[in-house]
Amino acid sequence: MYDKWNLPRRRDKIVQRRAVTAVLAAAALLLTAGCSSDDGGSPGGDGSAPSSRTSGQASPPERSGEQTPPAKGSVKVLRTVATGLKTPWGLAALPDGDLLVSSRDEATITRVDGKTGKKTELGEVPGVSPAGEGGLLGIALSPEYASDHMIYAYFTSASDNRIVRMIYDEKKPSGEQLGAPDTVLRGIPKGVIHNGGRIAFGPDKMLFAGTGESGDTGLSQDKESLGGKILRITPEGEPAPGNPFPDSPVYSYGHRNVQGLAWDAKQRLFASEFGQNTWDELNAIKPGDNYGWPEAEGRSDEGGFHNPLEQWSTGEASPSGIAYAEGSIWMAGLRGQRLWRIPLKGTEASAEPQAFFEGEYGRLRTVLPAGENRLWLVSSNTDGHVEPKDGDDRILELEVS
To answer: Which residues are in the Glucose/Sorbosone dehydrogenase domain (predicted)?
Structure first.
């Protein structure tokens, strides 16, 4: 059965795997008309969509009861952790407080000292083929990282998007610390646009991946395809036990381009998603549900589709990473160039979304929990859509409430 998903039946020990030769494919950035792609908007569009509101990582510590957060929150920049990053995309926090950040276009993973901001390159991930929105995207640490020192990565190859895992050996010289990649899942459709790319281990220690439909809208409703889905697999790449469709890694479908994954204190999953030219979405994810694309963009009166809990015009959001903290989902906006706070009551918004940093730090790519009432926030101004400023790209540490 797993051959259908191109899943290997047997894996050798990772340390024995030979590295795949890096293949770099040049491709011109394609932006289709009316497409909210990685730049978060229709090329040449006026952004005059309707008003913003029409009504990996581990789960945070459980709190007693479930309290509704205040309608208004606050954000304070505590410090700039690091500057001078090139096309940062994925972010993972090491147990000692240092950070790992992936570079989409350079296909490298860099360690950032959490105190000094010093950058040390672990190495280049072989087999990455950067082009358009593709390249080295999300990264996540193994749930057993303390013992296996394994880093998982989602990237675009010459033929597909795939998920690999690599041993991180800190004893080796800088630039040579990544072991040979072991492919755990291949065959995710690739394109110049809509490659998805966010991965995160859930509270159940299963690996979740947000994928895109690669510009082929029909894939989102095709449950036999890995495109336009949220996937749930074991650390070894098998369909995870309890998935809604037998022997399938598909967890939910009908997505256009999933960019963010986060769990609340009750272990409920939320996901952000690029719309086309009208609505971007924040969704509460239920296994097996259909989120509507391409039949529905944003809320729909048609039966059978799971409506988003919030939606925004593409000029206000074009969301990428999300994180949960202080009773709210925090959502990074690319084209919107702002950080959104969405206070929650269960799987519904308890108040109007609130925007911070509008235009202050430019495009925002990734947000990650950094401890109690703290977040890491990563900008994305070197990805070819805007003119970078001095110091771009950067990681900020935030205090939020």
So the answer is: 85-385
- Distance in angstroms (rounded) separating the CA atoms of residues 38 and 245: 30
Task: Assess if residue 254 is contained within a domain.
Answer: yes
Q: Find where tokens 């709190």 sit.
A: 63
User: Could you please report the per-residue DSSP string of 351-395?
Assistant: S--EEESTTTS--EEEEEE-STTEEEEEE--SSSSSPPPTT-S-E
Decide if 323 is inside a domain.
yes
For 231, half-sphere exposure in the C-beta direction (CA atoms, 13 angstrom radius) is 38
Q: Containing domain of residue 228, as a range?
A: 51-400
CATH of the domain at 283: 2.120.10.30
CB 89 within 8 A of CB 156: no
User: Which of 361, 379, 378, 370 lies closest to 399, judged by CA?
Assistant: 370
Answer whether residue 393 shows pLDDT above 80: yes
Q: Tokens representing 330?
A: 């925090």
| Domains held by the chain: number | 1
Whether 327 contacts 341, CB under 8 Å: no
Residue appearing with tokens 């020192």: 149
| 309, 51 Cβ separation under 8 angstroms | no
Q: Are 282 and 319 in contact (CB under 8 A)?
A: yes
Residue 50 pLDDT > 60: no
Examine residue 247 and state whether it is found in any structural domain, yes or no.
yes
Q: Is residue 41 part of a domain?
A: no
For residue 29 the two structure tokens come to: 């950035």
